Amino acid sequence: MKTMHNITAKQELNQQLQSSSSVSPKLAETITQKKQWTIEDVQNIIEERQKKLENQPLFKALDNSSQIDDLQAIAPHFYFFILIFQDMLRLTHNLISDSVLKKVAASLMAEDAGHEQWYLFDIEQLNCKRDISWVFGATHQPVRDFAYGLIGDLLYISDDRIRIIFPLVLEATAKVFFKYLVDLVQRCGYNQSLQYFGTYHQEIEMNHNIHQDGNEELHNIEFDENTYREAVAFIHRCFDYFECFADHLECQRADGIGKE
What we know:
Elements: H1 2-18, H2 25-32, E1 37-38, H3 39-54, H4 57-63, H5 68-74, H6 79-83, H7 85-95, H8 99-111, H9 115-125, H10 132-135, H11 141-156, H12 160-163, H13 165-187, H14 199-206, H15 216-219, E2 222-223, H16 225-258
Antiparallel strand pairs: 1-2
Helix pairs in contact: 1-2, 1-16, 3-13, 3-16, 4-16, 5-16, 7-8, 11-16, 13-14, 13-16
């Protein structure tokens, strides 16, 4: 009976992995053949979802643009997310009890400290500043709901090994956004004028410790089947939120350009 239960559980995990079109059947089969899972398996899922996120219409539109108007149309719609980004990292750190992983979370929080000031600087440069009533008004509500959804899922997680995945997801999604936003800024000739949306920020992000191969604290993480199943579901939910966010930004971009 125990063998039959294990087979059924692995079949369920395989189906869970394949339920998202972003996870290939080959990858799902490879993962479910294992008895123990590591952070490398988690990274494989994140990379698959990263590729799917990159196929969103927003990034195709930005890739085909050489108009700073496209950035001006969407830049204000990052307001709430960027301003509470440090809170998300702080909550991750506070929720983790494992001393080793807590140290990793503290390092990640320190590396991103103050980046919201670069964003506020860019908003001024782009002439698209918004006041607090707009940030908490109806127009910006979808972005607040997106951020609340991420935080809600983080608070629901009960295992430190899964909590530390949250910054990995944030870094992976940021890599996609920066790739297309920074390229647009460079094509428009604004790279020297902007901080958050320019190569200055992108290069700092790429030098974060989380991207270094020597991060043994993360490489030593192992998951049993139930914990890995929960981790996979958490990753999918987070990326689903970011895909919705990208869709929202594309709507704002198209509407903004259409009004001109």
